[in-house]
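Crash report, auto-generated. Payload:
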Amino acid sequence: MATVAWQVAHLVSRRDETPEAVTLTLGVPGWPGHLPGQHVDVRLTAEDGYSTQRSYSIAAPDHGAQLELTVQVVADGEVSPFLARDLAVGDPVEVRGPVGGWFVWHPPPDGADDPVLLVGGGSGVVPLMAMVRGRHESGGRAPMNLVYSVRTPEDVLYRDELERRARLDDGLTVTIAYTRSAPESDARGARRITAGELGSWAPARPGLRTYVCGPTGFVDAVADALVDLGHGEHTIRTERFGPSGG
Amino acid sequence: MGIVTPGFRGRRHAGVELPPGQYLTHDFPVLQAGPTPHVELDDWAFTLRTEGGQEHAWSWSEMLALPQETPTVDLHCVTKWSKLGTSWRGVSLDTFFEDVDTAAEFALVRSFDGYTTNLPLEDLLDGRAWVAHEFDGEALEPWHGGPARLLVPHLYFWKSAKWASGIDLLLEDEPGFWEQLGYHEYGDPWREQRYAGD
Amino acid sequence: MSGDRRGGPEASVLDGNVLAGRLGEVFGVDVTSARVLCVGCTREQCVAELVLFETGMGSTARCRGCGAVVLRATRIRDEVVLDLRGTRSLRVALPASE
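Recovered output after restart:
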């Protein structure tokens, strides 16, 4: 991995995902490429020199000099409301990355069929979506199972795309578990994921590699439950966000 | 300086005079380097240890029986937030030191979670520091340092050790948790003494 | 990651993945997969798996087993300051040579 340093990026386009989340496409001329699961640090500087930074997971696989980040707006946040609503197309920000070499998905070599389990809480689905998209773009067939815990139907990121991929991508299954309110058509109803449900959606399997991402409490609970279900600790990779969604 | 992003202002203030580099907050940010310790009042003690090894200790009820003060002070954190006019209730360090015999010039403050911070002994005296157990009229919450924390408002707020358990008096200065990493040994916000060498 | 952290103390508790950018700048290789050995309990874990407390003054990374401080990192002016006293060793895989 090359030494990471700050470089200038410009906003190319923005796309609303939900009322509270926006995907930004940044143009980064010097972008060295990245793997699904990695993130970037974004730094903003005001005219008087005040600066602050935040980390955001990359939402899509390597597309050359364009980077997609999905920003979930945190109420009263200093940075996310600005990025989501005020940053104008053409405006610059600084990014550092890609960073993260552990919570990373590598496209498997041809023919390899080890299954992958992805468990995301709220905005924790963002780096997992890069993995889902990465698998599709690399023509992967090895089973990939996404379990996505989210509060309400309005909060579901990438809803239409996930529905389409679940239908069209061979070997991909997507389970959305609502925790506060569910659509009427959802027989499961709205409640927190139980260990029993995890066991039926995500049984331990030989060769299974798992990625869990979301708020700290969610990740800790899921990782512990998976280990109790017989998953090896070393087969689970985790990434914890601040509190949001899920 | 980084590339300026037009329109970005961050959180800032106008009007009130603050130490250099600070901005005004109306929250009370919670920042800690480890899990919140939970200290039972029955187990609580505040212990002054002199350079000669002599100990002076107060239990919770003994501390409450000491003369109480209600200082209103401004807080300045090295992470740049300032919170003005905060009200506390606690015991002045002058009261704790009344019968303590010491030639020490330095203090190392200790907390129940292993945190330490150092400052000159004289900065704890003459009405400049308290062991505070109430904030804003209520018992001090654990995530703000309860049951009791040190309050030394004329220095950056990392010197106001949460979950204070006592003070060691030393003949030679000894750097505490953040000072060991390069933060200033004194920490005067008005001279912007954030890092060693400032 | 998803940006701002608000709320109570649990809001600042993350994991070592957060250190990737700051330490990557220093070491030039990814450090989140580096393995550390806690001096408190000798548990081996990746930097990414450490319990991370961010205070704005610096990052304090603690052993997920016993809670002892394994490493600390902060930015002071133009330097990154590291305190590695809490780990017996730091093992970093080098990128495979071409």
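Post-recovery validation: The longest strand of chain C covers residues 69-76.
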